[in-house]
Amino acid sequence: MIIVQISDLHIGSQFLEEKFNVLVDEINELNPDVIVITGDLTNEGLMKEYEKCKSLLEKFNTKKIIAISGNHDYRNTGYLLFKKFFPFQTVNELSDDVVLVTVGTARPDRNEGEVGYRQNLWLERTMKKHKDKIKIVAMHHHLIAIPDTGSDQLTVVDAGDVLRTVLDSKVDLVLCGHKHRPWAWNFRTLTVVNAGTATSERVRGLFENTYNILTIENKKVQVDLKIVGGKRVPIDEIVNNYSQFHDELDNV
After folding, report:
1. Which of 64, 107, 115, 190 is surrounded by the most beta carbons within 10 Å?
2. CB 90 within 8 A of CB 102
3. Is 125 helix (H, G, I), strand (E, B) or coil?
4. Do 103 and 115 touch, CB atoms closer than 8 A?
């Protein structure tokens, strides 16, 4: 199974349409089973941005697109439009062996994220129903602080509770967006993967537009980072060769 994670398109004033066209060609060549968009599809949550986004996403050839709202999507009462343009299921059984669950962290006109007690409890109960599967949780806001992203006050405010839930529930992978900086944290049985921005001019860390490619085979997950129009490398190599003053990709 191939799952592509793209994030933070920011369709609107920050959107790079030429990058999006390259992105479409690359992803369609992969022929992924699923595309997961981890938030901030639009820049200001405006009707015209949603309309353009809906039209652009139709260019992807895939069996399923799972879109998650971000804080930018919820601006200007955009939370009402998101439900209209991108209805979604919270529990997605992608195969007999893989389940992907989405968690809403965006709140209207707030930049920080929150899961909340009730949703966290629901997540814990839901994960227990899928004991023998590869379990993936996808959300917009980053669960853990990321290098090269400055002072951090915008993580999930109840991150400790959520981390306890995903660890106790033996979740294999958490997918996040929001900070425009690709990264991965490994906690033995759990990996938290952050996507960069695929098509926004506000890049961080690598100073390139990127997305993630997940390959699932024999109940194992391999996560690769792909530069839009550039090379593809295991995301672990980016982390292991991290340097604050040099592009990590020069070292892999």
Report:
1. 115
2. yes
3. helix
4. yes
Q: What is the pLDDT of residues 225-250, one digit of tens each?
A: 999 999 999 999 988 887 655 555 65
DSSP H or E segment with residue 37: strand 34-38
Please write the tens of the pLDDT for every residue from 65-88.
999 999 999 999 999 999 999 988
Q: Is the dihedral of CA 101, 107, 108, 109 positive or negative?
A: negative
CA distance 238 to 192: 14
By DSSP bridging, strand 34-38 and strand 64-68 are parallel
C-alpha radius of gyration, the chain, whole number? 17
Residues 103 and 230: their CA atoms lie apart, in Å, by 31
Angle at 213 between CA 16 and CA 119, to 5 degrees: 90
Alpha helices in 11-105 (DSSP H): 17-30, 47-57, 78-85
161, containing H or E segment: helix 159-168
